């Protein structure tokens, strides 16, 4: 088995992460995330589960074509492997191959459950049949693709002796990566260490060319600890997601594993290929696209991760930074620079600052960003990196627009009914104006928007927070909505259909405006996803034309 000092980072934000209810991304967003994962330096991008729907297959194919091939200026070695997930059956494997074959380095990742509970209740298969199926399907995947990964689902609750047999068969049939999932987040670090150690020592046919991988879920809050234990036992691939998003309590978070390996280098003596300075930006991108807000106390990427508010801590920090800080904020791309740009800063200064932050914009994009920047600078004296990140996210990290906010006016207070008038620009340029009253200014605004965009949906979550401190701070709003006529998707593991949830994001110095933008953003996503962006469907189902 592979046993050097490099840990491959296998990112499954676009598959296991996106599978979590509420993390739905459009194809355009998935592509943007994939481009950014490649820039971050991940070794493998699991781009999706192509058998879920023709749309999912197309999204994986597009990523394989556009992210899985070197650009003229790119070093070939830096091109990530593009993986597609497949259940252990021929039809899924065919679809995975159809999607990933366009990549320079394609991978088929197939899985079958091996725990007594899953074999009996889900698969209704005997252990012998499972071994047989693994052997046949890994060989089938291998007939298309050199790089085949096999995962015994629910390995954390499987009999290790049985795992050795199954994994030995997978090696015999051509698997080159053996991924060990703690599917339900059940094991403890000690147990997981022993499991990986046992697999490495006892699996028949284990050799240098095999990479042992770990894939942990966080149901008991031990995903990162288990992943690191697996790595200590010899695993050299970690399967992770940005912000730890994923089903139920989520997957192991990329940023925690990578920063643990880096910060405690003397303990692990291992490297990854991740450019850690991009972690903060990547976290925001995924949070904005999925509408899944990062908890403030989340390790590495939470808003408070580098904030030292308690008086005693501040005193210690002023004496010496290392008293309470084990990592430098700039190592994960959190820039401490307070005063970045002001009203008199020019286009050139903005371009430079954005480039330093990792955003290389073309001329048209820069024009848009500069217009937004000037608008903001008129309302806010000091513009920090955080403001710029929010502005960029609001302007660019959004799905294709169907409706945009053209103007709004809200009255509220204790003297009457909160009333909102909104003006929306439709996809064909038509301006719609609608007024409504509500229980509060946001409710009135959302009712007025509903009066124009006639989509029946439920608001599941509404979050507002200030991006920077101060009374003129930029407010960010994230919402999550669910369509009432239920656009569903299929979970590859439980094989159950679930109703898609769409996240939206908006930023403005006026939080009611930010709220309107976030809601419109989520509605646009829902319309695009439910119609797969088809002009005709948008017209038939929603009565509007795309621009
Ligand atoms: O958690 C799990 O078991 C998975 C497999 C498909 C690898 O996500
Ligand atoms: Zn998983």
What can you tell me about this protein's structure?
- This protein has helices spanning 13-17, 27-40, 54-66, 90-100, 116-123, 127-142, 160-173, 189-202, 223-233, 254-263, 265-268, 279-290, 311-319, 347-356, 363-379, 385-396, 441-452, 511-530, 535-542, and strands spanning 8-11, 44-48, 81-87, 106-113, 148-153, 177-182, 211-216, 237-240, 404-411, 419-425, 431-437, 457-466, 475-483, 488-490, 497-499, 501-508.
- An eight-stranded parallel β-barrel has the order 1-2-3-4-5-6-7-8, surrounded by eight helices.
- Helix 2 packs antiparallel against helix 12.
- Helix 4 (90-100) links the parallel strand 3 and strand 4 (106-113).
- By secondary structure, the chain is of the alpha/beta class.
- The protein folds into four domains: 8-290, TIM Barrel (Alpha-Beta Barrel); 306-334, no CATH class; 337-396; 404-542, Alpha-isopropylmalate synthase LeuA, regulatory domain (Double Stranded RNA Binding Domain, 2-Layer Sandwich), CATH 3.30.160.270.
- The chain is globular.
- Zinc ion binds at residues 16, 181, 183, 215, 217, 251.
Question: Top keywords for this entry?
Answer:
547 residues; alpha/beta; TIM Barrel; 4 domains; 8-stranded parallel β-barrel; 19 helices; 40% helix; 18% strand; globular; binds 3-methyl-2-oxobutanoic acid; binds zinc ion
